[in-house]
């Protein structure tokens, strides 16, 4: 099974036919897809200027989409290195029980679904790398009351998400499943109440 870097080489390789280059970009999302596979694909297509169903996009647009994905992956991989170093130091210092950020991080190891978007057509508009920087910054500070990506205050508790966890606070502005560790208990309670009000 090809890894992310070898798939990226195929996307860039002008000797490969266009169908293989497009397929290789889609396969990259099996290795790294911050919004989930379908939402990340929709995001990359819209930012690079080709349709999700376009079978023969401009090769330069495919490469632009790949470059955005690679930039985001570099941000996430750097975070994972820092995370692993911190946990190693904590264990050395006797802190064996992981916190809520650690629990969340275990579910997103490798970067799949870190900013999960259950609706593939609703996702942040900013570059993926910027979205991940904002999310990481939120994980490293005290919990807040809004979405760490867009600053939106309207969070609704959704159930039956195609993700683990399958329920949680979703930002109605940018569509991400907001990681619970970045929200205060009051913000989580408000999101739950909002969900009840919507369904009533």
Beta percentage is: under 5%
User: What's the average pLDDT?
Assistant: 90
Instruction: Name the helix and strand elements from N-terminus to C-terminus, one letter apiece.
Output: HHHHHHEEH
Tell me roughly what share of residues is in helical segments: 40-55%
Q: How many domains in all?
A: 1
Computed over alpha carbons, the radius of gyration is 18 Å
Stretches where pLDDT is under 50 for at least 5 consecutive residues are: 195-200
Strand pairing plus helix content: what structural class? mainly alpha
Count of alpha/pi helices: 7
Molecular structure report:
With 200 residues, this protein is mainly α. It has one domain. The protein has helices at 4-12, 18-28, 37-48, 59-92, 100-107, 128-139, 185-199; strands spanning 155-158, 168-171. α2 (18-28) runs parallel beside α4 and α3 (37-48) crosses α4 (59-92).
């Amino acid at each position: 099974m090809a890894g992310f870097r070898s798939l990226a080489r195929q996307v860039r390789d002008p000797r490969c036919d266009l169908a293989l280059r497009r397929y290789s970009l889609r396969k990259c999302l099996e290795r790294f897809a911050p919004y989930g596979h379908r939402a990340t694909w929709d995001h990359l297509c819209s930012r690079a200027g080709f349709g999700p169903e376009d079978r023969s996009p401009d090769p330069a647009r495919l490469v632009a989409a790949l470059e955005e994905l690679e930039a985001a992956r570099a941000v996430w991989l750097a975070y994972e290195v820092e995370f692993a170093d911190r946990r190693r130091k904590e264990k050395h210092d006797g802190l064996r029980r992981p916190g809520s950020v650690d629990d969340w991080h275990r579910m997103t190891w490798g970067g799949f679904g870190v900013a999960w978007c259950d609706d593939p057509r609703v996702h942040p508009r900013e570059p993926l790398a910027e979205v991940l920087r904002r999310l990481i910054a939120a994980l490293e500070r005290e919990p807040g009351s809004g979405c760490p990506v867009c600053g939106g205050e309207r969070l609704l508790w959704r159930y039956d998400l195609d993700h683990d966890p399958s329920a949680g606070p979703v930002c109605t502005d940018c569509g991400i499943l907001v990681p619970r560790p970045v929200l205060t208990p009051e913000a989580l309670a408000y999101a739950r109440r909002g969900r009840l009000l919507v369904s009533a």
